[in-house]
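Please decode residue identities from the backbone states below.
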């Protein structure tokens, strides 16, 4: 289960444990062929765009489409810091919103990897607007999907 907290007026943190080694969880977060299989949000969406240039200064771009073709959206950013396989810091631009900085850490204990992802936004108002979109539910569904995918990758 994904735990969502609001540690400060400008932050959203999501934490999830995966029954898999850190090296495998890192791959699932950084390889386009894997990301596009699980980072889909609610059921009924596909990810036809998944571009990752995994290097400091490299860009990423994700695009989703409703299976019925009625809706689509994209987000993009760049990598600020990479410490394989334990830490990723990237910017995130979504529509006309101010960019966020997202820090994702991975720590493994006894074969279980805990992922902690903190999104730092420009204000409490922007943070609250992001929370109101239901993004935490979509992320939770995606992380559930990842938890089911990881055993097949081992």
């Amino acid at each position: 289960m994904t735990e969502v907290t609001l540690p400060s007026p400008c932050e959203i943190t999501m934490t999830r444990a995966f029954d898999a080694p850190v090296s495998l969880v890192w791959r699932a977060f950084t390889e386009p062929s894997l990301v596009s299989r699980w980072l889909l949000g609610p059921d009924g969406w596909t990810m036809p765009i998944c571009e990752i240039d995994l290097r400091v200064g490299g860009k990423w771009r994700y695009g989703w489409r409703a299976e019925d073709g009625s809706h689509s959206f994209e987000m993009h950013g760049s990598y600020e810091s990479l410490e394989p396989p334990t830490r990723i810091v990237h910017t995130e631009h979504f529509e006309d919103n101010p960019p966020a900085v997202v820090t994702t850490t991975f720590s493994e204990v006894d074969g279980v990897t805990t992922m902690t992802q903190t999104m730092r936004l420009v204000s409490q108002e922007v943070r609250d607007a992001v929370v109101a979109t239901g993004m935490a539910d979509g992320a939770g569904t995606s992380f559930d999907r990842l938890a089911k995918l990881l055993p097949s990758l081992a």
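Observation: The chain has four helices and eight strands.
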